[in-house]
Amino acid sequence: MVQASVKSDIIRQLQRDVLSMQGSDTPVLGMKQLMGLGPVEQAFPNKVFPVGAVHEFISTGMEDATATNGFIAGVLNPLMQGGGMCLWVGTERTIYPPALRFFGITPDRVIFVDAGRPKEALWIIEEGLKCTSLTAVVGELRELGFTESRRLQLAVEQSRVTGFIHRYRPRAENTVACVTRWKIRSMASVTEQGMPGVGAPRWNVNLLKVRNGKPGSWQVEWGDTGFRFLSRPAQTDGAQMLKTG
Questions:
Q1: What are phi and psi of 229, to 5 degrees?
Q2: How far apart are the C-alpha atoms of 94 and 65, rounded to whole Å?
Q3: Cβ atoms within 10 A of the Cβ of 169, count?
Q4: Which letter, b or e, does each residue of 60-79 get, where b requires 16 or more Cβ atoms within 10 Å of its Cβ?
Q5: Number of alpha carbons in the 13 Å side-chain half-sphere of residue 90
Q6: Segment (H or E) for 230
Q7: pTM: predicted TM-score of the whole model, two decimal places
Q8: Which pLDDT band, with edges at 50, 70 and 90, does 5 fall under?
Q9: Which of 100, 108, 127, 191 has the least C-beta neighbours within 10 A?
Q10: For the chain, how big is the Rg over CA atoms in Å?
Q11: Which residues make Cβ contacts (< 8 Å) with residue 11, sequence separation at least 6?
Q12: Is the separation of the CB atoms in 234 and 190 below 8 Å?
C-alpha cells in the first residue's frame, strides 16, 4: 500500500510538471479573476487560461480575421495590465493598431513588425517568444508546420512568454504543437433598446482543440469592462459581465 501511494504521488507530480511546461501551471490566487474568461476557463487544465504557451487561431476570411484579432486583443488586455510589451509580427497585417485602444491596449505598448517574407516572419516570431522582456507575441502567418510549431512551443516553455499564432487563410488545418486551436467568427451586434447605431462586437468563440482539456463553444461580447458571455446569441439582458482587470 505504501509503495502504491508513493507511485501515485510520483505520477501526480510528473503530471503537474508536464502541465507546467505546457503553460498550465497550478492556479494562483486571483488568476481566474485577472483573465476574466469566465466559463471558458472550465475548458483548460487547472481551469486557468494557459500562459507561457502557444495558441493557434484559424480564420478563413477577412471578417473572421477581424473578429479573431478582436478576441486576441481582449485576451491580451489582462496579460498586459502590469505594463508588459507585446510583439505583433506578420507579412500581411490584418490589425488596425488604433483599434487596440477599444480593448484597453495603447498601441505604444505593441511593437509592430511587417516582415517581407513568411520565413522572416517566422524567425522574428520565434526570437520574440524567446525574449523574456516581452509579455506576449502575436504572429500572423498563413502556414505553420508541426516542426516549426514545436520550436515555438519549446521557446515559450523556457521564456514563459505567451504566443498567439493567427493563421489567415491557411491551405490546410494541419496538426501543430500549439496548446490550443481556436476559430472565432463574428456575430451581429445588438444595440441597447431603442438606440440607433452599432452595438458592441460579438463573437462565436470555438475552442476546437485544447491539450489535456475539453473543447467548447461560447457566444461572447466585448464591453467596457471586459468579456460578456451570452446565454443566447440575440439576447442582451441574460448575460454575465466578467471584468478583465
A1: -95, 125
A2: 7
A3: 14
A4: eeeebbbbbbbbbbbbbbbb
A5: 18
A6: strand 226-230
A7: 0.82
A8: low
A9: 108
A10: 18
A11: none
A12: yes
CA distances from residue 118 to 8, 34, 128, 151, 154 in whole angstroms, order as listed: 46, 34, 15, 16, 20
43's grid cell: 475548458
| Cβ contacts of 100 within 8 Å, gap of 6 or more | 73, 106, 107, 110
Weakest mean pLDDT among 65-69, 79-83, 209-213, 241-245: 241-245
- Write down how long the chain is: 245
Q: In angstroms, rounded to a whole number, what is the distance separating the alpha carbons of residues 108 and 85? A: 9
164, pLDDT greater than 50: yes
Q: Does domain 50-241 have CATH number 3.30.70.100?
A: no
Q: Cell numbers of 6, please?
A: 508513493
Indicate the SS3 state at residue 168.
Answer: strand
Q: Which three cell numbers stand for residue 30?
A: 486571483
What lies within 8 Å, CB to CB, of 220 at 6+ separation is: 71, 202, 203, 204, 205, 227, 228, 229, 230
Q: Which residues contact 23 (CB under 8 A, 6 or more apart)?
A: 50, 51, 52, 53, 156, 157, 162, 179
